[in-house]
Amino acid sequence: MTYRFIDHTADIGIRVASADIRGLFEEAARALVEIMGARSSGGSRQERISVHGLDQVDILVRWLQELLYLIEVRDLRITQVEIVEIGETDLEALVTGTVSPTPLKAEIKAVTYHNLEIQEVDNNLEATIIFDT
Amino acid sequence: MMEGLRIRRIDPFRLEIERKPPMRTRGIVYANSKIERSLEKDIVLQQVANVACLPGIVGPSLAMPDIHWGYGFPIGGVAAFSARDGIISPGGVGYDINCGIRCISTRLGLDEVKPVLDELLTGLFRNVPAGVGSINKGFQVGKKEFREVLTKGALWAVKKGFADRDDLDAHEESGCIEGADPDMVSERAVERGLPQLGTLGSGNHFLELDVVDDIMDEETANRFGLFAGQVVVLVHTGSRGLGHQVCDDYVHSMLVSLRRFGIELPDRQLACAPVGSPEGKAYLGAMAAAANFAFANRDLITLVVRETFERQFNRSSERLGMRLLYDCCHNIAKMEKVTHEGSPITVCIHRKGATRAFPPGDPRLPERYRQTGQPVLVPGDMGRMSYILAGQAGSRETFYSACHGAGRLLSRRQATKISRGRSILDELRKKDIHAMAASRSTLAEEIPEAYKDVSDVVDTITGAGIARPVARLRPVAMMKG
Questions:
Q1: Where are the domains of chain B?
Q2: Three-state SS at B252
Q3: How confident is the model at residue B327 (pLDDT cuts 50, 70, 90)?
Q4: Would you list the DSSP string of B152-190?
């Protein structure tokens, strides 16, 4: 597991780390899927996600918001996430899974920007993300 | 981040955070010594100070005694911004726009309810949709009608016969925030919210039966229709996915335009825009629409509660005396008139985890509460007491705002950890509290120890002259999402 929970009084906080930016975005997505209980063991439904934002912090939040929407509203249960392309302000990703309205484990209202930074720590990239629950 | 904030105790109920650049004003935290010891000082006081940096703030950046760590604004934060040159911040309202609480009174005594409590709770649990991502399968409105919900709120519910006209003025703003603009609500927000109208949701949202355990102000209690031993119903929920999406949409749109407005922020979650700017006005219209959804949401849940009681007791809800005592918003921004330094001004007041608390005599109160002051509902945690307060003259210094609950003490994860191996349902049962939850993990996260003692919060609010206690409620049955 390359993310761990951090204590936040009202909400859920996670710290994600990866060797590169692509990995960081994928790990953050896997963390969200796991917290919500939205993982699926198989499936062939593919969703292509394009996100545009102000900078990498903004596209990280917006990428996770897109996933949250697919899970909550479109009932997508997710097998795999892949960042196809990522720049400073744009992201292309492929999400694979299956549409199934299985009950979710936790309600995440939103992905917040609260004190969110992407930092280099010990040759890794790290981000701390607070979800409103 | 500002290093070394200086904190000073003003009196037994108030702490001051001294103004220090880039703060534009000082901070005031309402806290007695017990609350002060429980504060996560380095985090929450910093958040109060961050809010003090926002343009156009009027008076101090305030925090109620149930303050805890939020994102951007602290939970329990209150801040007023000038309508002329101040800002509005979606993060200062929060994702759950018009999350709020209502109290429905009954004429039933506990002796009448106790023998059928399990049956009644089971009925409520069956009839009120709750839980993670809950949708209302039994009741769906079309898109056109949904616009009416967003525009009119409780008034829509009354027109459709889902709520009682006599209860309208017992909603804050009569259940309809003016200026709601459904065109400012995104397709996605509608998509998220539409199927969720009439649902409780999960997390800290709840439906609870309480008994009036103690009357602390006889005269006011009489006017509120409260008596010792009486059963009342509390409903706590908000605007569900609709509000969450509105907040998402506008935090982003304001982040994009920050540079244009020349606003610098200590935390992106504080993203904001001038109240009068196109972005600010658009958010106000969308936020009011989401707030109206929340009023209608609580009205629909109330309808189901009434029907469940009617079937259980084989009497009409009128005969059961089921009336809305009050419905308060506690995540909201509103344009309100206040007096500041002797002059009347209009401010955009943000209450994030705080309740409006108009004092006796305020002309904005409905006739029945004009002499008493506004009812302020302060729910405790699952195992402890809740309070009904009434606004007092001292609320002028908080722009007519009071606390909204007990305030979290432990994170959900810490709460889950310490509740491992325990049966929370059995523990509650030993206290004579019946509980049902859509998820076991919600119960674990919401254990009583996860919250501050609401009595300390109420003591502080009372001591500061913001509101006075009218009645104390003891939970007897609850359902959680």
A1: 7-89+96-480
A2: helix
A3: very high
A4: HTHHHHHHTTSS-GGGGGGBGGGG--TT--GGGS-HHHH
Binary contact (A105, B72; C-beta < 8 A): no
- Marked catalytic residue, from B68, B330, B350, B404: B404
Residue B159 forms contact with A (CB below 8 Å): no
Would you say B479 and B206 are in contact if contact means Cβ atoms under 8 Å apart? yes
* pLDDT tens, chain A, 133 aa long: 578 988 777 778 999 999 999 999 999 999 999 999 999 998 999 999 999 999 999 999 999 999 999 999 999 999 999 999 999 999 999 999 999 999 999 889 999 999 999 999 999 999 999 999 8
Q: Are B243 and B290 in contact (CB under 8 A)?
A: yes
Note whether A104 contacts B: Cβ–Cβ < 8 A.
yes
C-alpha span between A61 and A63 (Å, rounded): 5
How far does CA B156 lie from the centroid of its chain?
21
Residues of B in contact with A104 (CB under 8 A): 132-133
Q: B269 with A113: CB under 8 angstroms? A: yes
Tell me how far apart the alpha carbons of residues B471 and B241 are, in angstroms, rounded to a whole number. 33
The yes-or-no answer on residue B404 being catalytic is yes
CATH number of this structure's domain A3-132: 3.55.10.10
Tokens of B181: 């603009």
Instruction: Using alpha carbons, select from B350, B343, B375 the residue that is nearest to residue B467.
Output: B375
Check if the beta carbon of residue A129 is closer than 8 Å to that of residue A10: no
Q: In what order do the strands lie in the sheet with B57-71?
A: B7-11, B14-17, B27-30, B57-71, B73-82, B343-352, B331-340
Torsion of CA A67, A73, A77, A83, to 10 degrees: -20
**Taking CB atoms and an 8 Å cutoff, what residues of chain A touch B132?**
103-107
Rounded (10°) CA dihedral B40, B252, B204, A77: -120
Please compute the mean of the pLDDT values over residues B418-440 and round it to a whole number: 89
Is the bond into B22 cis (omega within 30 degrees of 0)?
yes
Q: B7-89+96-480 maps to which CATH number?
A: 3.90.1860.10
Q: Assess B256–A contact: CB distance below 8 Å, yes or no.
A: yes
Q: Which residues pair with B19 in a beta bridge?
A: none
pLDDT bin (cut points 50, 70, 90) of residue B281 is: very high
Contact (Cβ atoms closer than 8 angstroms) between residue A47 and residue A70: yes
Residue A7 to residue B256, Cβ atoms within 8 A: no
Among all chains, which residue has been given the structure tokens 């996860």?
Answer: B450
Report the C-alpha gap between A4 and B192 in whole angstroms: 29
The helix/strand/coil state of B231 is strand
H helical segments located in chain A: 21-36, 56-72
B452 interfaces chain A, CB cutoff of 8 Å: no
User: Which residue of chain B is at minimal alpha-carbon distance from A105?
Assistant: B132
Q: What helix, strand, coil percent values describe chain A, rounded to 5? A: 25, 45, 30
Q: What is the pLDDT of residue B1?
A: 52
Average pLDDT for chain B? 95
